[in-house]
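Pasting as-is:
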Amino acid sequence: MAKVAFLGLGVMGYPMAAHLKNQGGHDVTVYNRTSTKAESWVAEHGGVFAKTPAEAAKDADFVFCCVGNDDDLRDVTIGDEGAFATMQTGSIFIDNTTASAKAARELYEVAKVQGLGFIDAPVSGGQAGAENGNLTVMCGGDEDVFAKAKPVIAAFAHMVGLMGPSGAGQLTKMVNQICIAGLVQGLSEGVHFAKQAGLDVGAVIDVISKGAAGSWQMENRASTMAKGEFEFGFAVDWMRKDLSIVLDEARSNQARLPVTATVDQFYAQVQAMGGNRWDTSSLVALLDRK
């Protein structure tokens, strides 16, 4: 059992923290910007909540974080009352936020000066993966630090991999989002075409999902896409945030991402339709609109 802090109890962080306590058996202190969410978590799972990241991180062996963006991440680490101010030498900060590789490398260097470990560890699997404890976690950082962190991360994950030095976890998550963006657009067009052709969409998906076209998205989202149901987790607003990170990194490393850039603009059109909180499969709504 380790002493663990978890900062950020959104749709992902709330169940991830719960798995650390209930599956990992760790002593968990939670912090959330809206304190009522932290109070609710403690009422449901036990443990304690703190009023600041610094208070939550004090004496913790591992500090996890899952917040919104680079600015939020810097705030809970090196901001006023940030976690780095109270973390003890040798403790490890594990960032599950989808953030930029630049922010990851910056905080890694700050942590190293202070004698702390830092792992950028964004996740894939969405809300369902967080709730079921079977996320995929892509890590960047030092091998010895990762080796200590991996067994703790495993409480909410079915795959935990070290992808390279600091920032490599975030870069891998960018690859993940690039692949999803193009795949969901292709699936949307396939579902839309099947409907326009008068086919039984369910029967079509049942057959082609067993062949080369099959994917997680097809198995889990095609039927709801055909029904125009988009209330299944990862929101368009979040995807656009992630794709902005991807496209910014591509401008830096000169990667050519024509499909990703186009799909990003399709998601902008979904937002204009009022679909900010629809899940990412809502790309099909653009094609189906009259």
